[in-house]
Design goal:
This protein is α/β, with parallel strands linked by helices. Helices cover about 30% and strands about 25% of the residues. α2 crosses α3 and α4 packs parallel to α8. It starts with a strand and ends with a helix. The chain binds flavin-adenine dinucleotide.
Length: about 325
């Protein structure tokens, strides 16, 4: 009755979030005295998962499952859980996993807890800590169903390396035509840039930047740091930046390790989307800007002076440490 973890990959490569869910599954397995089985779709080399506590990988190799398909994937994960006798299934909180998890919970007649941020407080009864109210509070949730589905918040647990090897096993679930009633035929990526959801660092600009012509220094900082660019709502509403960059209550959520906000006031609706970011740095010329209360580090000053200087220093640092 191993712990089952759903591992996401893109073009055969595992995402960083996958190593975090694997590490978390290992933590749960240790608490419950059992092993970890992963299920992956069309994954290449699965041995890397052993370093994060996975004992066995069920690899589903199927051209039909090349693109994410919630119904087919949930059916496959359910069959893997049944095959392994898994009582706990762990997933990330990526957009795809958030879609998959409730379907899976219905199929397994399982209780589902999303936004989990720590190992279970206890496994009998099974109680997990979760964030609530856009990360402003925690709650403790008891799941009393036989099977439990856990959605782990990004960057909540981290990567924990262990000594280990993952054995690979081919897995061919029985899928019906019904599973493919809605099917992604192909994916055209809009950009090769790192996305807000995947980014470890996000550099974000607000109305304080005065106009779209001033975004060069934000993009430069993002390039140096390998970061995604983001913005506040009015900035995208005014068409200075694409809507895909708008973060906050009505935009995208950010759970990066570092969030750098330039010329953003820190309105409650903006903060609602970035509370889960680990370290927040704010650059604003108004010392009374509300963002400073939510920030870990703050620079009071003119963005047009500070950001170019910071970019120079970051470049120097990067060159020295390359
Ligand atoms: C229902 C609802 C939902 C909303 N959802 C969202 C959301 O999802 N995301 C979101 O962002 N907003 C959202 N908003 C809007 C939100 O309330 C704020 O209006 C918005 O976040 C403000 O954007 P801003 O900080 O870029 O602009 P401003 O409030 O205009 O702040 C600009 C900041 O830049 C600073 N500044 C000016 N010049 C400089 C300079 N030279 N150097 C450094 N700093 C400078 C100023 O001191 C100021 O703090 C929502 C509002 C509502 C009512």
């Amino acid at each position: 009755m191993s712990i089952l973890v759903y591992i996401e990959s893109e073009e055969g490569k595992f995402k960083k979030a996958s190593y975090e869910v694997a590490s978390y599954a290992k933590g749960v397995a240790e608490k419950m005295g059992t092993s970890v089985t992963a299920i992956a779709f069309n994954a290449g080399d699965v041995s890397e998962l052993g370093k994060y506590g996975v004992d066995k990988v069920l690899n589903v190799n199927s051209e039909k499952l090349k693109n994410f398909n919630a119904e087919a994937y949930s059916d496959a994960v359910k069959q893997a859980a049944e095959k392994e006798g898994s009582k706990v299934v762990v997933l990330s909180q990526s957009a795809n996993s958030k879609y998959l998890a409730p379907l899976l919970a219905v199929q397994l007649e399982a209780g589902y807890a999303s936004n989990v941020v720590a190992l279970p407080e206890s496994t009998d009864p099974f109680t997990v800590k979760r964030t609530a109210f856009t990360n402003k509070a925690f709650n403790f949730t008891k799941i009393s169903t036989d099977v439990k589905v856990i959605g782990l918040s990004k960057n909540a647990y981290g990567l924990k390396e262990v000594q280990g090897d993952a054995a690979a096993e081919e897995f061919s679930p029985n899928l019906s035509e019904e599973d493919f009633s809605v099917n992604v035929e192909s994916v055209d990526k809009a950009t090769n840039k790192v996305t807000i959801a995947d980014a470890e660092v996000v550099v974000s600009g607000g109305r304080g930047l005065k106009g779209p012509e001033n975004w060069g220094m934000i993009e430069e900082m993002a390039d140096i740091l390998g970061a995604a660019t983001a913005c506040s709502k009015p900035v995208s509403d005014m068409g200075w930046r694409p809507h895909s960059e708008h973060v906050g209550q009505t935009g995208k959520p950010v759970a990066s390790n570092l969030y750098i906000a330039v010329g953003i006031s820190g309105a409650i609706q903006h903060l609602a989307g970035i509370n889960a970011a680990k370290t927040k740095v704010v650059i604003n010329n108004d010392p009374e800007a509300p963002f400073f209360k939510a920030a870990d580090y703050g620079v009071v000053g003119d963005a047009f002076e500070i950001v170019p200087k910071l970019n120079e220093k970051l470049k120097e640092f990067k060159e020295k440490n390359a």
